[in-house]
Amino acid sequence: MSKPKHLGVTPPISTNAPSEEEEALSTDLLNTLKDEGVFEGEDERKNREVVLGKIDKLVKEVVYQVALKNKLPESLARECGGKIFTYGSYRLGVHGAGADIDTLCVVPSHVKREDFFEYMTTLLKERSEVTELTAVPDAYVPVIKLQFSGVDIDMIVGVLQQPTIPDDLELLDDKILRSIDELSVRSVNGSRVTDEILRLVPNVSTFRLALRCIKLWAKRRAIYSNSVGFFGGVAWAMAVARICQLYPNQSASTIVARFFHIFLRWNWPMPIVLKPIDEGSGQFGVWNPKFNQSDRNHKMPIITPAYPSMCATHNVSQSTKQVIYVEIKRGVQIIDKIMKRELPWKHLFEKDEYFRQYKFYLQVNVSSRGDEEHHRLHGFVESRLRFYVASLETSGQFVLIHPCTKSFEHEFACKSDEEAQRIRAGFLPAEPSTPAPEGEAAPGSGAEATVPDAANGQDASSAEAGDPATGSDSDKGKIHTSTFYLGLHLIKRERSATGERRMDLSLPTQDFIRRIKDSDVWKGDDEMAISIRFLRQEQLPDEVFAGMSRERLRTSSSTRQDKKKSKKRSTQGADDAAASEAPAKKAKLAAAPVPSTSGFAADAGSKQASDEAAGRNMVTSAEGGSSATANGSTKPATSVVSIPAPVPPMAKSGGIKLKLLGS
Questions:
Q1: Is the dihedral of CA 68, 70, 73, 79 positive or negative?
Q2: What is the C-alpha radius of gyration for the chain, rounded to an integer number of angstroms?
Q3: CA distance 584 to 468
Q4: What pLDDT is stored for residue 555 in this prediction?
Q5: DSSP readout, 390-419?
Q6: CA angle, 658 as apex, 655 and 456 as ends, to 5°?
Q7: Mean of the per-residue pLDDT values for the chain?
Q8: Alpha-carbon distance values, 512 to 142, 343, 490 (Å)
Q9: Catalytic residue list
Q10: How many CB atoms lie within 10 A of CB 151?
């Protein structure tokens, strides 16, 4: 078969060779990446190879033992074989120091998936080099996660419909897909896609250097996560591969520069494809927006090159698409200066400042008592956050919802029922450097934390945090927690006549929590808890800032608005009054309690507090004045504090009401 004139679905844009300056910039890029520590050392490389060799022997041993169980003669059992393939960043040759290895274990037809998980986990438990072993057989792609001699391994299995697996088996032939189940297709396609990507780029070394650059940029700018709605590793690889096809003879520096410029102007949802989509035999469905409504809904489709072709970016939402666009636009501004020698490469890799970008955040907390159970809950909640984002987008309240790609993990040894209840409700102990919220004892003060209640405006639990109304010995002990964040950019709206801004997110929040609790991962409210809290940027915990400034970034639009407000105050002759009020407002915010899951305003000792305890829905002005009850009547408010939060207790009607107050 003759070699095609070009790689890709269109001819190249340019076949020019790189200039000396472009080559020099590529050398600078390589040196910068080395300084950033993206390359593994020689000892680590050799250790990985040894680990993979041991895993290959384990796969053959599993196949052998299952063959004996199925009454095959020992001589035939030894000939059944078994083989491992790598995929992802390791197979592409762009993995960094400490990166995991995605491993596909291919086994013959007599080894059922259940047999593989049972026998492999047994063999792994017997090895002293193996730690952190977790099997997730009911995942979308069933996986065994482990650490082998310090190397993180994600192990999946593909069962082929053939009696033996020879050592020279190749997976690119579509014939191997005949008669295998859908789970095996998903597993096998990971390796098939990465092999096809390498086959479709004109210069592998240039592709690898450019991809290392883009991967580091995407991770530093927090847009590298398929699970929460950004691009994953394979998607970024295919995007870079497409630029390599368009500039087949260029250096890595030019590929990177063209990457930003082309994708800034890319006409989404026009898909990125590396070769014409193969319809195959029709056994499996392929990506086809003409016939599939779900495929038409994809915002930024990047299509895998191996049959059956799928969209690697189906998780992208309207919000994450906007975030990716903003980061690419920033990349264009920086890369142009780099190519002119006005900036060094390191400026492209500056870390994002996610927790300084937004005025409001949603904090999603989940906790479990068991280590393995929490690992599964964490992964499941992370994979479902995109559905919560999609539901919030349809509420019409936001410009965008920006999910954080990083979660925050903790393990607490609770000394009392009260402490366990607070943690399960999402009130994690503050760091020693963080002042405890009003009414709580500071860490290390020797005083025990008290459980917040309706009387002081903090809720001991939400309907989603189990039933910690009464303590029990079972609440004590070890609790594992995971915290996820969603940054909120609100649509600007006029305030109501009482000066309030109101926002009801109860339906998407309730639906998200129900989605989590209805899964097989959820082990009941006694073992697990979930809570969602609304926080202002000033109320975020210290740990998320990692030593950086807490001061919120000011956008150009907010700066213009500040100038307008300042001008208006000056024309009213209120400059002095505004200046005198500023410290008081700051002190008021600092003294305000952390928002709870109650979502109600509470006035200790007032009828309002008893109303909250009774579960009545009430909306209160954050600036004082008057408060409105559910029936619309008003009454004077005395030193009332509004506590915004998305998940209050169940009202008498059984519904959950979410109000954003005083924003």
A1: negative
A2: 28
A3: 36
A4: 58
A5: HHHHTTT-EEEEEE-S--EEEEEEESSHHH
A6: 100
A7: 80
A8: 24, 45, 20
A9: 89, 100, 102, 154, 215, 224
A10: 19
Residue 224 is given by DSSP the state B
Q: Provide the 3-class DSSP secondary structure of residue 337.
A: helix
Distance of CA 495 to the CA centre of its chain: 33
Q: Where are the beta strands (DSSP E) in 137-255?
A: 143-148, 151-159
The 10s digit of each residue's pLDDT in 407-417 is 999 999 988 88
With tokens 């906790």, the residue in question is: 367
208: confidence class by pLDDT, cuts 50, 70, 90: very high
Alpha helix locations (H) across 548-635? 556-571, 575-591, 607-613
In one letter, which amino acid is 609? A
> What is the value of pTM for the model shown?
0.78
Question: Could you identify the residue written with the tokens 């086809």?
Answer: 288
Residue pair 415/441 in contact (Cβ under 8 Å)? The answer is no
Coil, helix or strand for 533?
A: strand
Ranges of H-type helices in 70-168: 74-79, 88-92, 113-125
Closest Cα to residue 305, out of 197, 450, 229?
197
For residue 429, the cross-strand partners are: none
Angle (CA) 216 154 352, round 5°: 25
Q: Before 644, cis peptide (omega within 30)?
A: no
